[in-house]
Structure formats: C-alpha cells, structure tokens
Amino acid sequence: MRCSITIFWSFSESEDADLDGLAEDGDSDGLDGGDADFTGDYFGYYDEQDLEWPDDDHDELPLESDGEDEEYHDTALEHGWERPADPVQQDIDGGDDFENLDNSDALSQPHPAERQEAEAPLGHQPIVEKFPRRHAGAPVHHSRTTAFESYKNILQGAENVWAPFESRIDYEVAKWAKLRGSGSTAFSELLAIDGLREALGLSYQNSRELNQVIDQQLPCRRPRFKHEEIIVADEAFDVYSRDVMECVKALYSDPEFSPHLNYAPERHYADADKTIRMYHDIHTGKWWWSTQAKLETKKPGATVIPIILSSDKTQVTMFRNKSAYPVYMTIGNIPKEIRRKPSQRAWILLAYLPTSKLDHITNKAARRRTATNLFHACLRHILEPLKVPGEDGVAMASGDGVVRRGHPIVACYSADYPEQLLTTGIKSGECPKCDIPHKELGSPHFPVNLRDLNAILAALSLVDEDYDLWRRACQECGIKPVFKPFWLDLPYTNIFQSITPDVLHQLYQGIIKHLIEWIKEACSEAEIDARCRRLPPNHNIRLFLNGISHLSRVSGTEHNQICRFLLGIVIGIQLPGNLNNGRLTRAIRGILDFLYLAQYPSHTDQTLVLLDDALTRFHDNKDIFLDLGIRSNFNLPKLHSFRHYVHMIKMYGTTDNYNTEYTERLHIDLTKDAYRATNHKDEYSQMTLWLERREKILWHDNFVKWRLVGDLASQERSPPDMDYRRAIKMTKHPTVKRVPLDRIVQDYGATFFTAALARYVVGRNQPGLSAVQLEREAAHIILPFDTVATFHRIKFHAIDARGFRDSSVTVDSVHSQPSRKDKRGHTIPARFDTVLVNEGDGGITGVDGYRVAQVRVVFTLTTQATNLLFPAGPVKPPAHLAYVEWFTPFQQPESHHGLYKISRLMRHGERLASIIDVSDIRRSVHLFPNFGAVVPREWTSSTVLELCPSFFVNSFSDRHAYLTIV
C-alpha cells in the first residue's frame, strides 16, 4: 500500500541557530568540550562479540559460565607488565582506617537498621485498595469465542492439530527454519538433498513454497506493515508502519497475556493502616488512577490501555554506517514481568522511520529543524488513529473473549536524552520535563515545575495564524518551533510528564560514565589499573586484568560491571593536593546507592526516601570534584534528571516498567536480525515481510500448544519479586572421586581437615557438649577412610515469588578448586571463593547471624563412612559438607563508605577453620582488599585473599548482595 501525506513546512536558512531542532548525534551532557565517544545501542543480554566494535585487546575475563568447562584464565595478564606506581605523597596516611578523613557535616550512611526497616515490606503481599467506582475496567459483555477459538475457525483444515502442515515433523522443521534456521538459500539446498524431503514427509520443497504456506494459509494476528510516503519540505520520505490501533488490539487480545492483564488501577499499601504506599507495576502508580477518575467522570465504565512508546535510531551494520529508526510500543495492562522478557513478545515494532541525513540541506540549523519536523510528521500520522478511541473508547476483546470499552492513551515515552529532546521539542542542554534553567541543573534544591502544557499548546496553535508570533511564543515557552508535534492533541497525554527515567542512558551511560572519567582524572590511572588487576575473582565480578583506564567505547554492560567494584578501588586511594578521599568515597557511595535503589522492582514511600537520601549524599559531597579541578559545575541534564525519579516512580511505577534496556534488546530481534535476513537492497520491504512471517509462526506455535494442552490455569497474583531466595544446586557426581587426605591439606590448603571433621562429627552426634568436652571427644575420633570425593563448584538458582525455581540460569556460584594445568599446559591458579555462612539465626536480609568464610573443600562422604561416623539418629547428616576458614564477625559498617570491614580469624597464628553443612552457605561474597594508599605490587588477583590482611565486604557485586548484605 502506498499513499502520500503532504506536510507543508517552510524555513529560512538564515534563522537563528538557537532555534535549532534535532540535536547532533551524541550526548549533549558532555559540556566539558570535545566530541563524546560513541556509546551506541549495544546493550542487552546477548553475546558481546556479535555487537562490539573490532578491538585487538582481549584482556578482560568473561563472567563465569554456567557450564562445567575449564574457565579461561590468562596468567600472563595477571603477572604481566604494568605501569609502575606513582610516588607516594609522604603526608598522606595510607593506614587501614579513615581516621584522618575530613570531618565535614555531609550526610553519612544511613544506619543498616533504618534501611532494613524501610525495605522490610518489599516482596510481601500488599494491602490492595480497588478503584472506588465498580464500573472501572468492568466487562461490557462476553464474546462467544476466545482468541484461539477464533483463530481455529479461520484456519483451514483445523481438524489436524498441525494444520496447515501435514505432520508434527512437517511443522517442527518449518518452525526451525523460520526461527532458528540458516538463510533461505541454505534451507532450500538442504531440502534439495536427494531423499531428505521424502524421508521427513515435508509438504514443501524449498523456502519459497514454505513462505507461500505461511503467507497464504496462516492467519495474520498482528497487523501487516504498510509503505507510505511522508512529504516534508517538498521531499518524500518512506515510512513503513502498522495501524497503531490494530497493534493495541493484537497485544490486548493475545491469549498468552489474558490471564495476567490489569484492567483497573489499584492502590497498594505496605501496612494495614494504608499509610505507606507501594509502587511496582504501572497500574499501582498515580497516573492510571487519576486518568481513570477523569474518564469515569465523563463516561463511566472505561478500561484504560496505557501505551508505552519507545524510539531510538540504531546501526544495523558495523562498517557501512547503515542505520534503522524503529519505533516500538507495548501496553501497560501487561505486567512488567512479562513486558521485560523479549521471548514473551509483549512489544510490537510499530514503524521504521526515515533515516535520511538530509545532506541536501546545507545549513545545519535548517537541517536539524527539518529532521525534527519529519520525526513529528511521521509519528503524528502513525498515532492519529488513537485520538477518537482515546477519548470515546472502543470495544476491545481480550484473549479470553471478554469485551471491555478500551481507551488507548499514550502514557509513557521511553527514550535516551537526544530522543527526549526530539520528542518534546526542548533545546539541547535543558531538562525535557521541567522549567529549571540550564545554569541550575546541578542544584539539588532549586524549585522546579513541570512544563506548562497549556501555555505550550497555546503557543504551538499560533503556527497557522502568524509565523513570527508563533516563533516568539515558542521561544518564550522554552521550546523549539516544531510544526504540530505528534502529541499536540492526543487525549489525556502530557508529553512532558510522559518522559520517563532511563536507567541505561541516564545512569550507566550517563553519570556513571562521567564518574569513572572523573575518578581517572583525580587519581593515578596506574594505581586504578593496579587495583583492578588485584581484585579477587567472583561469579558476579568481571575482572579487567589490564585495568579500566584504557577502555574506549564502553558499553552499558561494561559500565554495569565496573560499578560492581568501583567503590572498592577508590577506598583509601591518595588524591592530589593532599586531599583526603572521604568526600570522594561518600559521593561515589551515594551514586551507587541511587543506582541500585532506582532499579528495585518494588518501592514504598519509605524506600523512596532512601532514594532521595542517596542523591542528597552525592550532592553534599560532589564539591570534591570542584576542589580537584575536574569540574567547574555540575549542570548536566542527566544528573538533574535524578530529581524526577521519585515523582515518576509514584506516577508510573518502578523504573523496570519503562527502562530503555528492554527496547535496546529489541534492536537485536526486530531490527538487526531482520536486516541480516535481507539481501541489503530495498531492505525495509524485506525486513517487514521477514518479521510478519516470524510473528505468524510464533503465534501459531502458541496455538498449537493450546491445541495440545488446553487453556492454562490462571495464576494467583504474586507480590513483586525482590530476588531474596536462592536454591543450591550440586552436581550429581563429584568433580574428583578420590582425593587422599594429604592432598586435601597440600592442594586445597585445608590444614586442619581431619581435626575439623572430627569436631564436626562429635558436635553433630552430641550437640550439648561444651567446647572443652567437644575437643576431648574429638581426639578419640578415628576417620574410617583415607580419601574423600570433592566438588569444585556450588551453584545457586533463583526462586521467584511464586516459589518457582529457574534451573536454566546460574545466578551465583562458589569455586573451591586447586591449581591445575589447562589444555595448553598453562597453570591455572587455585581459586577458593569466600561465602556468606548462616550461623543458625540469619534472616532474609542483614548480616546478623551471618559470617564470612573462605571455602577450601566441598566434599561428601561415602555411605559406609557416614553410617560409621553418624549412627542412626533422628536427623540424617547432610550429603555435602565444606571445610571453611573463618573471618572476623561483622561489626558496624565504616561511616564513609558503609562497607563492613573484616579480617582473618586467627588463634595462635593459625586460621580458625570448621566443617559446615553446604546448605548453610547463603551465597558467594566478594571482598575488596584494603589496598591502603598504594597497592602492594606483589599481590595478584589469585593471591590477594592470602596476602591482604583486611578486607571490605562488597555489597555491590549484584542486586541480591545489595538487598541482603545490609
């Protein structure tokens, strides 16, 4: 389908540059001068080698794999050349403690008990208050057929479960070819092998025939793309888009989502008195409630369908600079746990916008304005069908056949900063949401107000009356003169409120990126890299064995990985000018707290106070960067955006409702993969057809499962999953079946293994003995074996709020493995991880009842040995045991950085050790070495746990650690 929509727009190339439209590529936060490196679109859960820029350096260790294969360890990097340490300033105290740090009045860390109290309601079932008007979200009537039944009625030959394919093999091969297979040519060549098609009983001979079956016989459940032309500035631009209302209906009517949809707003409370609000999904926020109230006043019985939009230009090739401009959409009725999983297909590709660079327009300012107006002209045309249904409603049937009067309303627009400016029409360097002046962006207290939508609409309406008056009115309102923005007359939509927080670009690729650069400038890069090289390994920590100072084009994933140890490498580091680093440490801790708290899947009014407190602590200490001469101001739009997080979470739920990380991941499935499937000529028509066929197969696959299994039982709503619980997974067979006891001592370092095991046996058989009695009885224990079977790894799987255990993903692991040779004959150092051990009364969160230990050996006893050592009793002994060396108990956390300081627990110069049940291990623990002013160069990553006298417990290694090590 082709049509033309003409947009008349004139411009003068001599107009003032301060009315420029679209900002140049890159992040305008970088006000220090110079071009910012490309930080790009490559972020998500996929292989980095598929997306990273070519680089000759392969020096970083990957995160731990889930398999049992030998792990990569480059000993040459660990022991290789590094830059020498800078001279130590003699008047800098390099001691263990922070006694000499400045005693400013800056806000210190909140007490752990305060945070535990605030976070206690998270993960529990909330008190729910329904919307007071009972007709809100209520059904209008019930359809006679469900979505699957309607699909079956359309499908030809539906008496065959596999129709339109002849058999299960016929269908499975077709599904593989379209979802997992190679290109169409290779598939046709495969089927051309003599006898293959007949042996499998396939109804198609090649890719072309398979495509004909999909195109002609599979019903289309998601709308098809249409090709149109948008004319702006006398030039036609190609747009490939779908009917937005049909997209809304496709998502709303999908039977996979129907048991989970939210139809009306709710207020969730953390207490029975309903004084503490809880926010998680979008329906628990204030926006849906207030919008529902407006609709009920005009026309009772409405079902709000919140539309979440996201747009972002992305590269589809590495070297030819080919790009695409996708627009994605989803609906807020679908719970966020489903929306954020790409495999659930809760997002739809709405359109591919033009990517023209408008090189024929020589004036840069005019080119930017034309690009801005082209963007708005395209979206205005695409979203036009929402206006009437948003106001009056339209009958919408969900997948279970229940019909409601739906009102599709644009609720959120998720985008990075340049895209936010483009969407709102705000000038570069300013906040797209509020009226704060640029020079006050770094202020935490300057009063701000949401931009006045009515005044802006009044100014924009002058475009058809007086061109000069329109330009002046727009300038007075603080926006660019955009010709009829797409949001101009969308019902119940305030675009300045709809711009949502963006954890990926505002935090990881924003302030975290700046913070790392500031630290590198403030501290010796040689010292920073030396500390990175000497961090001990851990499942959740990526080791940068060449440091981080040389990294360029750093992705959001890499910034995430650096954040996990950033605080540990600055504790105690010396600063220029004899400045102590107390304020630096507090500032970094404040930003990291804000980063982790901002990503909570559930919040209450109390935890939002913690979020605000974290930001306050950064602002109270940020002047250290001024004193160091690194910054002259903090007028960064992304830093200012943090002031809006609390308000936006209250309005639209937690940030995982609208994080651009999810739509960045969609670039892989819906844009890059689609482009790779084309011949790179007239690619958009091929990309859209490839996507339509893929969507048909995926929808049909769900239909086939329904035919085989039937309707799924509706599940009870669970509270937001806070990821507290873990389950231990041990391999069925040990890594080494027989290890002599002398090798346990020599190779594993379990010096007192036999004595510790004897004490464990006595303590388990006679639990009431005193310490003296236990030692006396243990001296008489004779072990009836001289070898044990050892395990070199303990795995942990997550358990969600419903109690479901996901065995496909290893969320944590513990290694206890002696040194060995790899396949190339290189020595891989020994690795004995540290863990958090429950001493008997440990809770879900907090460190009370827990202690850190280093695991030396994980082992099991034979049945015969178990029967001899543990006579029949009421409690069966555990199958897996661990020999651990203890660290000192937790005390109060350090005041400046809030981490717990521990050291080896010693007696008479020897490490105290015990045998424990493996089930008492809560999780792995990463330790920051106490580096002092300058890290000793004889330490390495694999020896630092043995050589360093004291450590700080890392609570930022992953979200679970941050939640539990409080």
SSE layout:
Layout lengths: L3 E4 L67 H5 L32 H8 L7 E4 L10 E2 L4 H8 L13 H12 L4 H8 L4 H5 L6 H11 L8 E7 L2 E7 L2 H9 L13 E4 L7 E3 L6 H13 L3 E10 L2 E2 L7 E2 L1 E6 L4 H4 L8 E5 L11 H20 L3 H6 L1 E4 L4 E13 L2 H8 L28 H8 L6 H11 L17 H4 L4 H20 L2 H9 L22 H8 L2 H5 L11 H17 L4 E2 H17 L2 H4 L9 H5 L3 H8 L7 H17 L6 H27 L16 E4 L6 E5 H8 L4 H13 L5 H8 L8 E5 L1 E6 L13 E6 L2 E2 L5 E2 L2 E2 L1 E5 L11 E11 L2 H7 L11 E6 L14 E3 L2 E2 L2 E2 L1 E5 L3 E9 L14 H4 L2 E5 L4 H6 L2
Parallel strand pairs: 1-4, 8-14
Antiparallel strand pairs: 2-6, 3-14, 4-5, 5-12, 6-7, 7-15, 8-11, 9-10, 11-12, 13-14, 16-19, 17-18, 18-25, 19-20, 20-23, 21-22, 24-25, 24-31, 25-26, 26-30, 27-32, 28-29, 31-32
Helix pairs in contact: 14-15, 17-19, 17-21, 21-22, 26-27, 29-30
What can you tell me about this protein's structure?
The protein is 33% helix and 16% strand. Strand 28 (906-907) and strand 29 (910-911) form a beta hairpin. Helix 17 (503-522) crosses helix 19 (556-563), helix 17 (503-522) packs antiparallel against helix 21 (582-598) and helix 26 (660-676) crosses helix 27. Mean pLDDT is 88; it is low at 1-71 and 90-107.
